[in-house]
């Protein structure tokens, strides 16, 4: 496609874009289980109005846009209070990945300042930690040291203790981890970090705007936030259960001295003095405004209502899946995301059968499993989903995998000993998805959500 010479009309462009959307997954109808956190048309209208009101603003310059600075500071203040500290500081980022990258960079710079001889920084993280930590390790030269999880799928604290060395700059825990929806033993991990004088980051990208309200509703929520001694930083996504516009997260630090290591400054540019608090230079003020608007629109009552609804839905789904012969939920999830598998049926073949019925299920591996993130959009489809899932499972039991399905591919990639070959498959996929083609299909093998 080439750039049009004269341009096209607004109506023509909108008609084409809306037509293209017809091929997208039905997130409004609850037919997909990740990527979109839809809290209703009223919330969507607030987001759109706030976003377009601040459409042209740039958070790079607080001097030019003091209103954006005010909105961001208030979002961070509200988030800090939810996460157990009135003194924590932080910034809004473009997503959970950037928040995690900033936490890793901050821990590395802090350790370098306190230990001038440090040349080979490391971080200790469970195998269930989000791949954004692997990305940060790759970008910032921090060696990832992986530890196993216990039988309950939570980080093994003794393994973490054995993995910490004089090179360790950060210990990582999740609240919750994405594959199993369980909260790692944060008090124990944070105490270990505090004993060694190093940072402890809690990845609460999924749970940061959910777990605090669960606790207020009387659910048993494991300790995970700044109320835990030794926790030095937390990431919490606004665009997940905060229900803000896509492209917004937060990264918070226990105090200002720690956060200073996040900043980038350059004093010798002919274009002027330069400073940037996060990865991005220019940052859209629109996403800051949308986050501020939705937090104030919903308020505590709104979030309590949504969390209650989502947890009731999640419990109904887990009970329903466990009632289907051959299927079982893995572990005991702490909140509203979980995976399920089968000891007797090819679970990827079940996913293919569900795809044929119009559902979009995320495949996961190590071990083979399917994954659900429950949102308000799923409240009305529990019955139809469980009925289709039972029928799909029965069809696989009686008829085997669907011809032409993806079960064989997922199974092969999940068990292939040569992981380098799997990396090449992923690279090939990314290459194809970066080129225009009429027959493109979405969904990376594994299907896991990217923050």
Outline the secondary-structure elements.
Elements lengths: L9 H12 L19 H13 L12 H17 L6 E5 L2 H19 L7 E5 L5 H9 L2 E5 L9 H7 L4 E7 L11 H10 L3 E5 L7 H6 L16 E5 L11 E5 L2 H4 L4 E3 L7 E3 L8 H38 L5 E2 L7 E5 L5 H10 L5 E3 L4 E5 L8 H18 L7 H9 L3 H15 L18
Parallel strand pairs: 2-3, 2-4, 4-5, 5-6
Antiparallel strand pairs: 1-7, 6-7, 8-9, 10-11, 11-13, 12-13
Report on this structure.
It is a single chain. With 451 residues, the chain is an alpha/beta fold. The protein folds into two domains: 49-296, 3-Layer(aba) Sandwich (Aspartate Aminotransferase, domain 2); 300-433, Aspartate Aminotransferase, domain 1, CATH 3.90.1150. Helix content is 41%, strand content 13%. The protein contains 14 helices and 13 strands. It has helices spanning 10-21, 41-53, 66-82, 96-114, 132-140, 157-163, 186-195, 211-216, 256-259, 285-322, 347-356, 382-399, 407-415, 419-433; strands at residues 89-93, 122-126, 143-147, 168-174, 199-203, 233-237, 249-253, 264-266, 274-276, 328-329, 337-341, 362-364, 369-373. A seven-stranded mixed β-sheet has the order 1-7-6-5-4-2-3, with helices on both faces. A four-stranded antiparallel β-sheet has the order 10-11-13-12. A two-stranded antiparallel sheet has the order 8-9. It is globular and about 70 Å long. Residues 440-451 have low confidence and may be disordered.
């Amino acid at each position: 496609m080439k750039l049009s010479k004269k341009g096209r009309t607004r109506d023509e462009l909108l008609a084409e874009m809306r037509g293209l959307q017809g091929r997208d997954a039905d997130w409004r109808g609850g037919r997909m289980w990740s990527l979109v956190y839809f809290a209703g048309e009223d919330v969507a209208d607030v987001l759109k109005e706030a976003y377009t009101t601040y459409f042209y603003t740039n958070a790079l310059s607080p001097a030019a846009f003091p209103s954006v600075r005010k909105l961001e500071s208030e979002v961070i203040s509200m988030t800090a209070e939810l996460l157990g500290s009135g003194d924590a500081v932080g910034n809004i980022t473009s997503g959970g990945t950037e928040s995690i990258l900033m936490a890793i960079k901050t821990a590395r710079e802090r350790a370098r300042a306190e230990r001038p001889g440090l040349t080979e920084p490391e971080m200790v993280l469970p195998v269930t930690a989000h791949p954004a930590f692997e990305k940060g390790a790759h970008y910032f030269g921090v060696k990832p040291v992986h530890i196993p999880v216990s039988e309950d799928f939570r980080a093994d604290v003794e393994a973490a203790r054995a993995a910490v060395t004089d090179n360790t700059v950060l210990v990582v825990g999740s609240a919750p981890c994405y594959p199993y929806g369980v909260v790692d033993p944060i008090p124990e991990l944070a105490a270990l970090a505090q004993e060694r004088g190093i940072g402890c980051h809690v990845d609460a990208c999924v749970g940061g705007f959910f777990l605090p309200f669960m606790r207020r509703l009387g659910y048993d929520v494991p300790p995970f936030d700044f109320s835990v001694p030794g926790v030095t930083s937390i990431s919490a996504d606004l665009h997940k259960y905060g229900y803000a516009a896509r492209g917004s997260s937060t990264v918070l630090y226990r105090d200002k001295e720690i956060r200073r290591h996040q900043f980038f400054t350059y004093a010798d540019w002919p274009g002027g003095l330069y400073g940037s608090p996060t990865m991005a230079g220019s940052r859209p003020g629109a996403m800051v405004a949308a986050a501020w608007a939705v937090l104030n629109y919903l308020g505590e009552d709104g979030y309590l209502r949504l969390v209650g609804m989502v947890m009731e839905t999640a419990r109904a789904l887990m009970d329903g899946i466990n009632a289907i012969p051959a299927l079982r939920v893995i572990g005991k999830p702490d909140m509203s995301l979980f995976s399920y598998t089968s000891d007797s049926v090819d679970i990827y073949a079940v996913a293919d059968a569900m795809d044929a019925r119009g559902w979009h299920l995320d495949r996961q591996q190590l071990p083979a499993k399917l994954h659900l993130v429950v949102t308000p959009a799923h409240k009305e489809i529990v019955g139809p989903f469980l009925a289709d899932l039972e029928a799909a499972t029965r069809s696989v039991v009686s008829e085997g995998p669907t011809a032409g399905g993806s079960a064989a591919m997922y199974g092969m990639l999940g068990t292939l000993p040569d992981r380098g070959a799997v990396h090449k498959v992923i690279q090939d996929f990314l290459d194809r998805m970066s080129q225009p083609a009429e027959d493109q299909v979405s969904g990376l093998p594994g299907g896991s959500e990217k923050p």
